[in-house]
Amino acid sequence: MSSATHIITLATRFQFHDVLNKISQIAEKAQENQSSRRSLRLILRNLSPVVQDIKQYNDHLDHPREEINSLIEENDAEESACKCSSENDSNVVEKLKNETFEAGPPFKCPFDVPENPKFTVGLDIPFSKLKMELLRDGSSTLVLTGLGGLGKTTLATKLCWDQEVNGKFMENIIFVTFSKTPMLKTIVERIHEHCGYPVPEFQNDEDAVNRLGLLLKKVEGSPLLLVLDDVWPSSESLVEKLQFQISDFKILVTSRVAFPRFSTTCILKPLAHEDAVTLFHHYALMEKNSSDIIDKNLVEKVVRSCQGLPLTIKVIATSLKNRPHDLWRKIVKELSQGHSILDSNTELLTRLQKIFDVLEDNPTIIECFMDLALFPEDHRIPVAALVDMWAELYRLDDTGIQAMEIINKLGIMNLANVIIPRKDASDTDNNNYNNHFIMLHDILRELGIYRSTKEPFEQRKRLIIDMHKNKSGLTEKQQGLMIRILSKFMRLCVKQNPQQLAARILSVSTDETCALDWSQMEPAQVEVLILNLHTKQYSLPEWIGKMSKLKVLIITNYTVHPSELTNFELLSSLQNLEKIRLERISVPSFATVKNLKKLSLYMCNTRLAFEKGSILISDAFPNLEELNIDYCKDLLVLPTGICDIISLKKLSVTNCHKISSLPEDIGKLENLELLSLSSCTDLEAIPTSIEKLLNLKHLDISTA
């Protein structure tokens, strides 16, 4: 036994004796002291992981089995002694019987709180007011309201990270983004998953609210903070339903509108001029006293034209950074025209259009920015999907290097927020961007949609169809009527204009209640199709078979459980389809897509396709060059026939913890250049035939 192993074993032994002695002491006093009984329950609950650790040491570190068995037997003996001692007092026994030992505190850490903002100005007064209310005893609902882009989310996030607020609520902080169409069942599912509890099946939104109430009551007695970010007027009644009868329960709502029925309201106002100048200097990378480089009056006019709106200041300042004086004068002239920027969001969008002036020398970046609006509001946009799209649409390289350059430029200009939840050096080395995401501010997303819709419907490069059950608060009948009207309108467009639609990109967001009729449509020019699903089951519509130019198919399910996808055989007729990316999808049995070059599966169920499929992967995708499988928890083995795809150049199987072995004949993949098996923790060995992979340039078997 190594010295390190011996230390671990001794530490574990001492931990056992300490824990068991503590149990004996508590058991003796259990009849007299109720708090001691609670401590007993906590210790018993914490004891189980220790036993599991020892078993793992025994299996993986080759400890002497007799020593480990002795420790486990000691634990069992002490537990029996504790039980016998407890049986002497019938009241204690009855109390312990009625408790759920495995429950534990629901929240081990705050839920979904964004990163702490690094730089803010002008928020001190509303921050202090809301902080005082949060620290006050008792339950209450607070509303932070103001125009879009004023910093409501930033302020709410800053409060969650405040030392005193964090000290009071500790891990019991839940941050939920509602948006225009809150997917309540999905939100509650994610909270259950975060707590490590089984994700229940909800009958409806009311059932989800009730289950959330039961979950939150598990922290009864400890302060609880629920942040509801970006709540729209149609969700006001839903906020009321979330006002559970829990002691010291605070709800902080951020919204573009005020809700009079909630008593405590804080109105966020535009920045004072001095704060606006400070913010502008920060994002324009100008020292506060260096305005002589750019004429001071010019700076003052630019800042005043932004009317104190932080988002506008940030975007305009960044766009003017290191730009010539002539462009400054042009922006000042154009921003000074028209009415106040606060009159309406439409005018805000019109003024924000000016940021494209600094991008006029690079139209590809403008197009890429507008593509970000193709994905649902307030959801992370996977960079890997953008790489696939842009390589086909704008002839960027397949490695993603040029795409990341554009994304970083958008980030530098504050037009997008790049997020890397888990940094892995090997990802960058392999040009693997599965851990890279983009978040887009609501106003900037609307800006992208606004610019895309300036062209006539039948001439647009992008079509964005967003159909949800609760869109705009419509009833089921009204929703059905709206779908029929839209379908008729689209058919009318085709009849009036016999030319095919010019759209190269089609984005459709839908749930199980919506079925848009495209029977008369001819989307033959579409090269990229994005399907955003909010449903447990989805059948690919027949009109997909008409997309003769389709090159990239991206299907993402935004619910917790993988969505069952059917009608996959439609793809067999698409001769130009080269890339498919599926996320949170139960992958069906494959259909033959002869010219497919790249297949990416992220957080998918693969067993049906890989183990029970009616067709071999080598027959389905005979010309496949790249296969990416990431976070597929049910993956046990690679699909049969994979070693017969001689064209395969990249094989990446990452974060698939149940896969234990690779095919013995993997050496047949003579063109393989990259093999990544990162974080496949149960992988025991690599076949010796790997030595036949003469073209292999990169092998990654890291565990982190």
Summarize the structure in short.
Keywords: Plant defense, Repeat. The chain has 704 residues and is an alpha/beta fold. The chain is built from 23 helices and 21 strands.
CATH homologous superfamily classification of the largest domain: Ribonuclease Inhibitor
CATH architectural arrangement of the largest domain: Alpha-Beta Horseshoe
CATH topology of the largest domain: Leucine-rich repeat, LRR (right-handed beta-alpha superhelix)
Into which percent range does the helicity of residues fall? 25-40%
The tally of structural domains comes to: 4
Record field, number of beta strands: 21
Mean pLDDT: 77
Q: Which ranges are low-confidence, i.e. pLDDT below 50, for 5 or more consecutive residues?
A: 1-16, 34-42, 60-65, 77-103, 338-345, 470-479
For the biggest sheet, the summary is:
10 strands, parallel
| Number of continuous helical runs | 23
Nearest-angstrom radius of gyration? 29 Å
Shape: globular
Strand order of the largest sheet: 9-10-11-13-15-17-18-19-20-21
